[in-house]
Amino acid sequence: MSDHESTYVPKSGFEKWLDTRLPIIRFGADYMALPTPRNLNYWYTFGAILMVCLLTQIITGIVLAMHYTPNTSMAFASVERIMRDVNGGWLIRYVHANGASMFFIATYIHMLRGLYYGSYKAPREMIWIIGCVIFFLLIATAFLGYVLPWGQMSFWGAEVITNLIGAIPMIGEPILIWLRGGPSIDNATLNRFFSLHYLLPFAILGCVVLHVWALHTSGQNNPVGILIPKERTTKDTVPFHPYYTVKDGFAIILFLMMFAAFVFFMPNALGHADNYIPANPLQTPPHIVPEWYLLPFYAILRAVPDKFGGVLAMFGAIAVLFILPWLDTSKVRSMRYRPTMKVFFLIFVFVAFVLGWCGGQLPDAPVVPGMASFVLFDGELNSFLWLTRLATAYYFAFFLIIMPVVGLRETPLPIPASISEPVLTGGGAMAAAVPASPEKKG
């Protein structure tokens, strides 16, 4: 499926000349004709949605950079000037600010889909690993961008996160000084954050090219989770265009409608009100929290009482994703045919929401107000801190314990022998849960 022969034929003299020197048109034409599994559902459209989000963020970010001033005494005022005095500036700023949230919504759905359908399994490990690199760069870019408006939450968020880096033994302090540009957050820090925030999206774009290249090489996964042998390519696949370009286009339109609803009707719903207050190093906000899409990792950070341990847990929550292809011991890709693992996956999704909710609460706030008088809910047992610790424990147990153990002990359901046979034959031939041949191993 990934090594199909090129069908592109140059039509004009210019195309022939270009094709012998830089076959970029051939590459695009071959990608449009790429044999793609015919059973991809709408969960597979979020890759195209993410590309739209990335391009939107880059374009709006370039325009905003033309008017932004990375100086602690003028940054907040420059953002307000963009909103009030620049033609269309309010729209560009709201698109960029809400675009970050839309980017993370699509990213989390895209990653959960890959987790559910086993898209990280061989031979697609590099696709998953590059995707994790993109995710890490996206988190870094979002954090750096959150600091630029130089509001109260921007400043204190930078203060908290950069201090955490200083907790790393031996190398933490030099990295902290380099990142801040001095002993405290000041003009040098804002300049560094602005430069890195401008640079990283282009690094993400380069990783996306590698991501697509790896996908083109290894082939697309599908909801059934079986590899498509060459002899069944014509029966189990369709050309990417027009079948999936139309499907992706329709999904993009629906996504942009949701995007537009936030931009035009509730542009500040996903932000924090304190960021409309100019940064004041002498006044600490009552509750310092990051943007909503970083709250689960912030909750994991706070779940560990030791500062350095919290930093390790937070970065470990991302690092464990990189080794996921080797943690899952099951021979079956898709959780459609893994009923036990499907239950644990649904619990994992619920726990992720719980972590996000806990990350936005005060650690010592009561989970059940008014229940502190009961012995069971007395003291810390009624706090979000303990709920966060339980959720954090399940997060790591899901990857490090549940996946390896369930993969070895679970009895999967029978999987189809191909994509088309279950549909064309009213049930079709069923293969063994553990395929015998390497070509169908999945």
UniProtKB/TrEMBL annotation:
Presence of the UniProt keyword DNA damage in the record: no
Superkingdom of origin organism: Bacteria
Cofactor(s) this protein cannot do without: heme b
Topology class, membrane: Multi-pass membrane protein
Main localization category: membrane
Segments passing through the bilayer: 42-69, 90-111, 126-148, 160-178, 198-215, 250-270, 308-327, 343-363, 383-406
CDD domains reported in the protein's UniProt record: cytochrome_b_C (cd00290), Cytochrome_b_N (cd00284)
Cofactor note: Binds 2 heme groups non-covalently.
Domain Cytochrome b/b6 N-terminal region profile: 14-224
Subcellular location: Membrane
Keywords: Electron transport, Heme, Iron, Membrane, Metal-binding, Respiratory chain, Transmembrane, Transmembrane helix, Transport
Entry-linked InterPro entries: Cyt_b/b6_C, Cyt_b/b6_C_sf, Cyt_b/b6_N, Cytb/b6-like_sf, Cytochrome_b, Cytochrome_b_C_euk/bac, Cytochrome_b_N_euk/bac, Di-haem_cyt_TM
Domain Cytochrome b/b6 C-terminal region profile: 230-417
Assembly with partners or alone: The main subunits of complex b-c1 are: cytochrome b, cytochrome c1 and the Rieske protein.
Function, as annotated: Component of the ubiquinol-cytochrome c reductase complex (complex III or cytochrome b-c1 complex), which is a respiratory chain that generates an electrochemical potential coupled to ATP synthesis.
UniProt record similarity statement: Belongs to the cytochrome b family.
Name of this chain's protein: Cytochrome b
Species assigned in the record: Brevundimonas vitisensis
